[in-house]
């Protein structure tokens, strides 16, 4: 007798289109829905392997919404390499295995406020951080663009070659990243702005005196209140910086945070242009391979992360 496999002759249709012709992502969505529906039949455990596979961002959000709606009906065990899945399903549920030691770690000790912060934060590099040995956290895109360039300029090696992960976390949210790594062995250097506030310098000094594996680095001079100002002040006479800033309009105010940096104000039009065109100037520094001096606090962060 010829063996007949039902899967080969029966197909599920959606809007008259066979499931197998809907694409792997849609197939995953439907199969997940079917599996979770079975939880109404009192299944004790449902296991889902890497639900992010073949899904675009919108469908991944739909998948997470479906999983969350059923999470109380059965025990769900999900494996993933996706930071959004890990954070949206609550960091306090995470277990991960250290590949070098095979030891299991978890984040069930973080507070609810931090867990809720990452649930709402779509764009995060949480798993990159948790799976790192050493990491540098920065505020924004300009630091993210230029730090690898400056690091290689100093050490003649890349961040990746030295096992360092670079993560942009935005503003002071690095404190949230501190919360989730405080009981791990991950070495973290934060490169951030002092924002012209004594309180930020005081916080840095207090934190650094109490922490061994997490350090904050910012310029000690309040005049260097942000990345571009610190970079400008140690390269003010460097023709490469002027080249990267591009053509200066002598009639422009180049106003930033109510300060006029044009010739009718601070008379630092290059700095004014840098502050108003941060990413563009950073890109040109990379494009021209500008030979710039690296701010002291950045070099201190590099040195510490390598110790």
| CATH architecture identity of the largest domain | 3-Layer(aba) Sandwich
- Uncertain segments: none
Envelope shape? elongated
Please give the share of residues in helix: 40-55%
Work out the helix count.
14
Mean pLDDT: 85
What is the distance, rounded to the nearest whole angstrom, between the alpha carbons of the first and last residues? 71 Å
**In this structure, how is the largest beta sheet organized?**
4 strands, parallel
Instruction: Write down how many β-strands occur, each being a DSSP E stretch of 2 or more residues.
Output: 12
Structural summary, described in words:
- The chain has 307 residues and is α/β, with parallel strands linked by helices.
- It folds into three domains: 12-79, no CATH class; 126-222 and 295-306, Rossmann fold, CATH 3.40.50; 236-288, no CATH class.
- Helix content is 43%, strand content 14%.
- It has 14 helices and twelve strands.
- Strands 8-7-9-10 form a four-stranded parallel β-sheet.
